[in-house]
């Protein structure tokens, strides 16, 4: 009878490691952006779907022609405010994930 060169304990540890590394569960959290009009300003709060804040994130305001009108860094509360432009616009928070979080000005009326 041949003896296995790897002990059953080592084999089990290696199997557990392999299974943990090949997990198909993805733990990504998508960006979120909540915006509201307040007088002549649009106030936005950026974050992630797991509730994590996005302090320091760059929030951008674009025209429909994709011209950058304004950008600002989110404060310690993950918030930023913009003066409402005189043109059609959308606001974007793009942390580099699959898709950015975007809010169109029409959604704010």
Question: How does this structure look, described?
Answer:
This protein starts with 7 loop residues before the first helix and ends in a 5-residue tail after the last strand. The protein is built from one helix and seven strands; from the N terminus they run αβββββββ. It has a four-stranded antiparallel sheet with strand order 4-3-6-7, with no helix packed on it. The protein is mainly β and 109 residues long. A hairpin with a 7-residue loop joins strand 6 (89-93) and strand 7 (101-104).
Please summarize the sheet with the most strands. Answer: 4 strands, antiparallel
Strand order of the largest sheet: 4-3-6-7
What Rg is obtained from the alpha carbons, in whole angstroms?
23 Å
Q: So how many helices?
A: 1
Q: In what range is the share of β-strand residues?
A: 35-45%
> Which descriptor suits the 3D outline?
elongated
What are the secondary-structure elements, in order, as H or E? HEEEEEEE
The total count of strands amounts to 7
Pairing-aware structural class of the strands and helices? mainly beta
Short characterization:
The protein is mainly beta and 109 residues long. It has one helix and seven strands, in the order αβββββββ. The radius of gyration is 23 Å and the shape is elongated.
Write the layout of secondary structure elements.
Blueprint: H1 8-21, E1 31-38, E2 41-48, E3 58-63, E4 68-73, E5 79-83, E6 89-93, E7 101-104
Antiparallel strand pairs: 1-2, 2-5, 3-4, 3-6, 6-7
């Amino acid at each position: 009878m041949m003896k296995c060169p790897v002990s059953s304990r080592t084999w089990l540890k290696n199997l557990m490691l392999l299974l943990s590394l090949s997990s198909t569960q993805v733990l990504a959290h998508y960006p979120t952006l909540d915006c509201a009009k307040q007088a002549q300003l649009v106030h936005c709060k950026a974050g992630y779907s797991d509730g994590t804040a996005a302090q320091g994130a760059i929030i951008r305001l674009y025209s429909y022609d994709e011209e950058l009108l304004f950008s600002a860094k989110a404060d310690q509360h993950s918030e930023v405010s913009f003066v409402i432009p005189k043109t059609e616009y959308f606001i974007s928070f793009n942390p580099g994930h699959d898709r950015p979080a975007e809010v169109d000005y029409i959604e704010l009326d």
